[in-house]
Amino acid sequence: MNKLAKSLANYVPLTPVTFIKRASVVYSNRTSIIYGRTSFTWRQTYERCCRLSYSLRSLNLYRNDVVSVLAPNIPALYEMHFAVPMAGAVLNAINTRLDAKNIAAILRHSEAKVFFVDYEYVPQASVALRLLMVGSKGQHRMPLVVEIDDINKPKGVSLGKLEYEQLINDGNPEYSGEKLEDEWDAIALNYTSGTTSEPKGVVYSHRGAFLSTMSLIQGWEMGTEAVFLWSLPMFHCNGWTFTWGVAARGGTNVCIRNTTAEEIYKSISTHNVTHMCCAPVVFNILLEAKAHERRRIISNVNILTGGAPPAAALLEKMEDLGFHITHAYGLTEATGPALVCEWQSKWNQLPRDQQMRLKARQGVSILTLADVDVKNKKTMESVPHDGKTMGEIVLRGSSIMKGYLKDEKETAKAFQKGWFLTGDVGVIHPDGYIEIKDRSKDVIVSGGENISSVELEAILLKHPVILEAAVVAMPHPRWGESPCAFVVLRKTGSTTETEILAYCMKYMSKFMVPKKVEFVEVLPKTETGKVLKKELREVAKTLKIYNKPRKTIDLEMNV
Amino acid sequence: MNKLAKSLANYVPLTPVTFIKRASVVYSNRTSIIYGRTSFTWRQTYERCCRLSYSLRSLNLYRNDVVSVLAPNIPALYEMHFAVPMAGAVLNAINTRLDAKNIAAILRHSEAKVFFVDYEYVPQASVALRLLMVGSKGQHRMPLVVEIDDINKPKGVSLGKLEYEQLINDGNPEYSGEKLEDEWDAIALNYTSGTTSEPKGVVYSHRGAFLSTMSLIQGWEMGTEAVFLWSLPMFHCNGWTFTWGVAARGGTNVCIRNTTAEEIYKSISTHNVTHMCCAPVVFNILLEAKAHERRRIISNVNILTGGAPPAAALLEKMEDLGFHITHAYGLTEATGPALVCEWQSKWNQLPRDQQMRLKARQGVSILTLADVDVKNKKTMESVPHDGKTMGEIVLRGSSIMKGYLKDEKETAKAFQKGWFLTGDVGVIHPDGYIEIKDRSKDVIVSGGENISSVELEAILLKHPVILEAAVVAMPHPRWGESPCAFVVLRKTGSTTETEILAYCMKYMSKFMVPKKVEFVEVLPKTETGKVLKKELREVAKTLKIYNKPRKTIDLEMNV
């Protein structure tokens, strides 16, 4: 058995680049990309990738070199998902919502050799490049800048001399890319948005990207000929790997520049969209769309959602509109979704609200993960499957990142005892499904008891006049930490701190009742809709514990 | 990028064993196996595998040791697909249709350490063991024999002392298997049935088995909760990897001992079967079933067929019965199916017979193959995508076998210039779909021209009184080789050699017309329905070229 050696025929490094080579043959005349009046077939898209890849090599780009790009969901960004790794380089898609300072920090940290900039982002990019130049004091080699002009209506290049379509034109369509020698080689670099700490550069391997793509297509049951709407930014974990996945299934990419309700509804009805991904925050955009922006959803549109836990009620409203939602949980370090809330046919018999509660859970591991567990972080023992005992969600498998770029300390912190620690706290239900209770850092430790802020928020949200709620820890002289609730009221409602605390006394264990309720107009959030609890914790430090006006509440609250 | 090292958290060897560990958690209470009145849940099946694996280790089984098994599609054989690799050993499922001499040869060649025998196969196994003992002259260490009694109705052990359920009972349910260090390690050993040469021992790696399983679930779009009927023997490429695949999807295995029409129809209607695999030869069994054996197919039963090219007419008849058929092409060396005839929605508009002709093609590569091509074997240049130019089908990728056990010569012959040579001759159509024209050894080279025997057979089958046809090469003094046709006539029909040759003149290029037509009662076949052309070629050598009675035909035939 041992004498049978690996050969070129039976051991080929795994890489998602194979998906587009295959698509160019198998789905050659099928539409690969639609973007306004531009559309390509898979043969054309592959040819454009070959050309771009060739041009990148001509720019003296080598293995492990970083190519940064600042662009919305346009064909160029899609093509770069294949062309950059074909050139042996590493794709770094930058979050377009970042300010110039952050962009400069990423360009500096990643040592980007080439920087592609969409014409609309020239202003931020220009400032970022200036900051980079000044900050480096001549020490930093500036990246070569390539502007991506509007493919539908070119406006002329204003940043530097190179333009994207020119690189495509100058490329060699016969060039099929560098030979990948090792599937452990880096394919992409994605900076975390970091709700709890500084941005970190997460590196994916070709192997990890390939395997994640395979299992997400499968976990979501995305069939062949899918029409995929790019409502999720490609810079989020490479579009949760569906950049590569749509090529694998020979689907059609519908690219849109702006994620507005009108644009989404229009694309769905014009192109018969079958699949789209988005954070729950997009649900509100769709639900609050004005009448003239809406279209009736007549086709079967499957939505994969994640990025923040969706409320069961929100899922229900979206399904009422005609969307079919699958809930997933993941993080940048896991190459996007790591758990999918796989539907069980027996749930079809349950009442609607129960179905939605089941669906709001984070779910079960994708197929290419070797193992997922919830563990007591101190003892590293598995929690019982009781739906109650909380522990840290830990992952293991080849779709986990290679590590954080140039950050041995954080990499070592993330990988402990053979597991990747997600920093999320959850439970395992008796049916094996995992539910997130909190971010590890958001758990409130009050008098030795762990309090899940997510649990308190869920109870607060059932209050008739509360629209949004976020609970964080505030310092407490006796208990160490105590819960502090920030609430946004409905426009039509009004209430008092005393009334809300009385409500909490009714529905929560006494030790869980917040020691302070603060009314706010809006909650600070990331662009994916995650509440920035770090900021709220800072505010909470400045607040005073509720000054009990009535004795009854007082007595009960200091259990 | 290069400093980020592999760790236990982010680099886990790929193996299908992870599928059952996951199933035991995620699908714990779902039915894993149904076999008569026996049924298990995934938690139980996993526990049984852990126990068996532990017992195997207790029998002093080590890494790379071979465990042979002679059994039909029973739960034990299914469980061994996980328990044997969990013990670090290599599973060798032997074709139950082989005679004692062949079984002995496999036991000898594989150096099996343990030999599991289903109670029904004790007679063959006993003879095989005696042959092994005699043949080895005391040189060969005899395998430890374990009998598998009937789990539904135990009959008592008659072969040796060990029994399967006893090993299960004696095992440790907490044992979770040996840690796999290298995904290149062997997981299975399957002997080819060999229509053209001696049986060879094909070795699969854990990596290859994992990847094949992933892409076949995908290529066939087998969703979660599939109910899979074991109509395909598990000893054929480990059930085309669906032994592992059903666990991956948390489906239910319906095991049957005999592949009779009655058993298949009954299982489909009793258990709402959604998926089954079989060679086209099973279609005839289902189509020719007697009225009392049949049931109406009301559920959506998906069939994956392969092993021999199915006639378009046969596909149509099966779909008329209510089956939905997907056609695949593969071979033992490719871990089962390597091409799948992926359906394209635009074909829905075509006339039925054209749909069936498209479906009868072998199709496009599965996702985990790195590359598939059709090449001129001499120059290794790719053939044009014209649907006409023939070449050898070649494959490359990590789902290709490790090689042939203890056969460097054949391994080297199979892997050439970075490709695995299938020995099958085909064409690529303009849409990228591959169609097989012949086995490489079955191509007839007449006066320098390649003649596809499959093409001639297809024409002969259109003749109103011909039921079956097989064309092979016969020696020809002038052309080197010439086609010789063996035909089976319909019971109601009669014709003459002269008439058939006149028919051929009408529908074939002149150089293709057979030089001899031989009428036979039946064609020699393998159990999967492949015609044994090697045998026919031997017969053809003894036949005389058609002695032209009329001048017109004579003239035309010697073009």
From TrEMBL, chains A, B:
<dbReference type="InterPro" id="IPR025110">
    <property type="entry name" value="AMP-bd_C"/>
</dbReference>
<comment type="similarity">
    <text>Belongs to the ATP-dependent AMP-binding enzyme family.</text>
</comment>
<feature type="domain" description="AMP-dependent synthetase/ligase">
    <location>
        <begin position="25"/>
        <end position="405"/>
    </location>
</feature>
<dbReference type="InterPro" id="IPR045851">
    <property type="entry name" value="AMP-bd_C_sf"/>
</dbReference>
<dbReference type="Pfam" id="PF00501">
    <property type="entry name" value="AMP-binding"/>
</dbReference>
<dbReference type="InterPro" id="IPR042099">
    <property type="entry name" value="ANL_N_sf"/>
</dbReference>
<feature type="domain" description="AMP-binding enzyme C-terminal">
    <location>
        <begin position="455"/>
        <end position="530"/>
    </location>
</feature>
<dbReference type="GO" id="GO:0106286">
    <property type="term" value="F:(E)-caffeate-CoA ligase activity"/>
</dbReference>
<keyword id="KW-0587">Phenylpropanoid metabolism</keyword>
<comment type="pathway">
    <text>Phytoalexin biosynthesis; 3,4',5-trihydroxystilbene biosynthesis; 3,4',5-trihydroxystilbene from trans-4-coumarate: step 1/2.</text>
</comment>
<dbReference type="InterPro" id="IPR020845">
    <property type="entry name" value="AMP-binding_CS"/>
</dbReference>
<dbReference type="Pfam" id="PF13193">
    <property type="entry name" value="AMP-binding_C"/>
</dbReference>
<dbReference type="GO" id="GO:0009698">
    <property type="term" value="P:phenylpropanoid metabolic process"/>
</dbReference>
<dbReference type="InterPro" id="IPR000873">
    <property type="entry name" value="AMP-dep_synth/lig_dom"/>
</dbReference>
<keyword id="KW-0436">Ligase</keyword>
<protein>
    <recommendedName>
        <fullName>4-coumarate--CoA ligase</fullName>
    </recommendedName>
</protein>
